[in-house]
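User: For my dataset I need records formatted as: sequence, then structure tokens, nothing else. Please produce one.
Assistant:
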Amino acid sequence: MSSDHKNGQHGASIPAYMLVALILIVVTALEVGIFYLDVVGELLVIIMIGLSIMKFGLVVGYFMHLKFEAPLFTYFFLGGLLLAISISLAFLTLFTNFDIGEPNVAQIAPATPTPYPTPTVVMVPVESASNIVSEGVVDTLVGGEGIFVGKGCAGCHSIDGLDGAVGQVGPNLTNIGTVAGTRISGVNAREYIENSIMNPSDFIVDGFAPVMPELMGSFKEGEFKELVDYLESLE
């Protein structure tokens, strides 16, 4: 039994505790400093494990009073500690993963993102597309067809058989009434067409740039419905 037990005191003296605390501070500072040094991965692991064992032993021995208990408790503790260290080293060796920090992360290079395709085309301004009607090119267009051309949609999209609808910036809308119903599960063709006009940035078709302008503020009464009816009919 230790002298502390004989004197009725279970543990070390206050100066001893202060000395142990100072040692723990110094060891922790060493760990932080060594981590930032250019040390080989395997050596760094060994040093860190050694310093950790030292700190752990001081904490358990003094602040958890293991040093002042019967030797049997120390044997149990050391057995468990050695087992834990052995398992940790076994896993590190198995996976050969002793690297710490940036070299370890750099083992797997990030995949190079595929550049977003940018069509090489000339966009037709909305004003120019609107003038098509007044210039007599498609002056016979009415209803949804006229709105489609008049709002400048024909400058970015193409529709087979519709004069002036030869744009290549956006997807071909010749069969949009059928295709729209297959784009998003649970969304029918009309809902898809309506939402793609109201929120164009949320409905980008693969292979096309997100350049469609907001049109909702430009529609007169009934025009939005006429345009959707027309596009839905393109089967």
